Structure formats: C-alpha cells, structure tokens
C-alpha cells in the first residue's frame, strides 16, 4: 500500500522556536509537496520538490524552508515559528510529471503559542 | 492567476443525489482532481478528469468542461459516511496542484 508518513500528528511550540516537520514516502515518487490547510482558505502550497535537492516555491513560502536530501524524505522547516503559522500541515507525493494523483500524509497539526 | 471556487457548505439527505460544483479561472492545466476529506483526516483521491466529459466510478462521477471552466462531482445514493469535505484541484502536469476552498457536505438521515 502507498504510504506517506509525517513524523508528528500534533506539535505545540513557542514563538521563535525552530520547528522541523518530517515527511517520508515509500513509493519512489519523484514529486513531494508541503501544504498548509486553514479553515476557509483550503490547501495552500508552501513548497514542492520534483527531485532530490531541488525545490520550488509555492504560493506562500515566506517563513518556511525545505530540504530534500533523499528522494523519500521532504522536510519543512520553520526557522522562527510565529503564531500565524498555527495550522494543519499536509505532506503529499506524486509519481512524476504528467502522471498521477497526490497521496497525502495524515497531517501535522502545529500550534504556536 | 488561479481562482477556483466551490460552495462552502451543502446539505443533502441519505439516499439522495448531490452535485458539488467547481468553477475555475485558470488554464494550462492537464487534469482536474476531486478529493474527499473527512474531519481530522488526510484528503483521499476520488476522481480525475483529463478530457471533457463524465468519468464514472461507482457512486461517484465527475464531469469537466474546459470551455466553460467548470467541473462537478456527482454523488449518488448518499450514505452517512459521505459527510465530508470535497476538494477540487487542478494539476499542472503533476508538478503543482492548486486546490479550491472545499465544500463541506452534511448528509442527514
């Protein structure tokens, strides 16, 4: 079965802390994505990666960075968390260009106090 | 720019048929997807249209008209477990997926 695993379901952090959200997929997918989901705003793309060490900014990259050192792993980093980054973060992967749907992880609900 | 619209909420009765619409002002995408998301869970894939027309998958069907900038998801024989949010998304050749705001469907007994 296809699997996208996010490291933490729930996190509580303080303003200014550095936050790492990890995502691993076991499907040998080329593309990986980080979205945040907020009520009324839907899913918004933060960053995506179409290859190891490659990354592209999405619609809302400010305040975030990403790392893809290995094909199966895509990390989202909040260098200095702020309260407006309280959200549900969803990682997803897809097979490659022109193909396939997104497979999502279970999500990581981050609260920044 | 990309602009995808869906109704915020819909209500329907168990056993009925419901149509959830998705309108968009964007071009250059190669496919339109529909996802289901239950509260507190990840979205799961329902249906996908590349060409104009109707795609049927059991109780769920999806329709696309590129000339009209319009898609819909049709759910037949509604069940209580169909209460969820339904997300429409356009795919740009697998390297970017842009989502609509989602429609929350409540199925009543």
Structure keywords:
heterodimer; A: 113 residues; mainly beta; seven-stranded mixed beta sheet; three-stranded antiparallel beta sheet; B: 109 residues; six-stranded mixed beta sheet
Query: So what's the overall shape of chain A?
Result: globular
Distance between the termini of chain B: 41 Å
- The residue fraction in helices of chain B comes out at under 10%
Mean pLDDT of chain A: 92
Class by helix and strand content of chain A? mainly beta
Q: Biggest interface and its residues per chain?
A: A-B, 29 and 22 residues
Q: Give me the strand/helix succession of chain A.
A: EEEEEEEEEEEE
Total strands of chain A: the figure is 12
Shape of chain B: globular
Instruction: List the uncertain runs of chain B.
Output: none
Radius of gyration of chain A: 13 Å
Helicity range of the residues of chain A? under 10%
Fraction of residues in β-strands of chain A? over 45%
| CA gyration radius of chain B, whole angstroms | 13 Å
Q: Let me know the number of strands of chain B.
A: 11
Number of helices of chain B: 0
Any overview of this molecule?
The complex is a heterodimer of chains A (about 110) and B (about 110). Chain A has about 110 residues and is mainly beta. Chain A is about 0% helix and about 50% strand. Chain A is built from no helices and twelve strands. In chain A, strands 2, 5, 6, 7, 10, 11 and 12 form a seven-stranded mixed beta sheet that branches. Chain A has a three-stranded antiparallel beta sheet with strand order 3-9-8, with no helix packed on it. The mean pLDDT of chain A is about 90. In chain B, about 35% of the residues are buried. With about 110 residues, chain B is mostly beta strands. In chain B, the strands form two sheets. In chain B, strands 2, 4, 5, 9, 10 and 11 form a six-stranded mixed beta sheet that branches. In chain B, strands 1-3-8-7-6 form a five-stranded antiparallel beta sheet, with no helix packed on it. The model of chain B has no long low-confidence stretch (mean pLDDT about 90). Chain B is about 0% helix and about 55% strand. At the A-B interface, β5, β6, β10 and β11 of A face β5 and β10 of B.
């Amino acid at each position: 079965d296809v699997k996208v695993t996010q490291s933490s379901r729930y996190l509580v952090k303080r303003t200014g802390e550095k936050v790492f959200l990890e995502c691993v997929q076991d499907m040998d997918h080329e593309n990986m994505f980080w979205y945040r989901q907020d009520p009324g705003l839907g899913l918004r793309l933060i960053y995506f990666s179409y290859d190891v060490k490659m990354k592209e900014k999405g619609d809302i990259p400010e305040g975030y960075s990403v790392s893809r050192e290995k094909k199966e792993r895509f990390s989202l980093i909040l260098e200095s968390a702020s309260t407006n980054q309280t959200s549900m973060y969803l990682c997803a992967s897809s097979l490659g260009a022109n193909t396939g749907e997104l497979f999502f992880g279970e999500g990581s609900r981050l609260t920044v106090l | 720019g990309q602009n995808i619209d869906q109704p915020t909420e819909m209500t329907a009765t168990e056993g009925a048929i419901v149509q959830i619409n998705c309108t968009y002002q964007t071009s250059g995408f190669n496919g339109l997807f529909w996802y289901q998301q239950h509260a507190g869970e990840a979205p799961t894939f329902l249906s996908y249209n590349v060409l104009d027309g109707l795609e049927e998958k059991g109780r769920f069907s999806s329709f696309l008209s590129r000339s009209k900038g319009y898609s819909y998801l049709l759910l037949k024989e509604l069940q209580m477990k169909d209460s969820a949010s339904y997300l429409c998304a356009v795919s740009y050749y697998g390297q970017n997926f842009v989502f609509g705001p989602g429609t929350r469907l409540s199925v009543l007994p």
